[in-house]
Amino acid sequence: MFRRKGFTLIELLVVIAIIALLMAILMPALQLVKRQARGVVCQANLKQWGTIFALYTDDNNGQFPERKSGGDAYGRWMDSMREYYITTEDIRCCPVASKIANPDMTQPIDWWGNRDLAWGKVPGWDAGGQRTIGYYGSYGVNGFIYVPVGSDVYGKAANRFWRTANVKGGSEIPMFLDCYFWCGWPDDDDTPPEYDGHQKRPDADAMNRFCLNRHSGTVNAVFIDYHVQSVGLKQLWTLRWSKDFNPVNPWTKAGGVRPEDWANYGTGWMAKFKDY
User: Fold this and answer.
1) Residue 88 counted as domain residue
2) What is the pLDDT of residues 176-216, one digit of tens each?
3) Residue 46 lies in a domain
4) What is the span of the domain harbouring residue 229?
């Protein structure tokens, strides 16, 4: 007698349930691997930027670009170093934030970046201070590496700037890192973001430009000695951003911060991250 071969409905449902269970188990692991791979690419980008900065300083008597306040694009890293990276412009973006905030420069769409978006493209309708139209990226420079022109740059005294990579303790001085804008001048009394994604856009209190949860509680950075590493969000307050930046400040363990301080600050979103 001929018998049909095949699965019963119950057997099919069991197979589907098993596949769904396996997918539920595997997906978090796959997402983790994907995030880790993006982090590796991000660090590779920053390694290239370290080489670009090194080439620039080698060609300019060991000094970083000159920078002055407002008025023009004088000294901005995107312009000063363009000839060194013009053939590889994609390295301006971390792979986690490669989507551009306003790719068509449409008015009045916001072009500032965030954790997941690159800043730009800089539109003509908001090109104040001679911002270069069309630029984009998801990294930013520590403004204190520049050679200042005049007595200050955006209110930051000239004697606070590093000017050159030939300084002691370069492994503690951040140069170029994940950022939602192209630059920032952090001070040791800057306050953390009050919630994940909180932005304080003025040049003052600028640490939040770099304190973004892009790589699972860390950002990636290349330092003034050209090494690349992952930096914990709370660790940002322990680095030497400027010549007079105090790494023993109220937001560090050495300065007396307690876990409950992070828990009670803002929405407490940073309490879960590693303390420094």
Assistant:
1) yes
2) 999 999 999 999 999 999 999 999 998 889 999 999 999 99
3) yes
4) 10-264
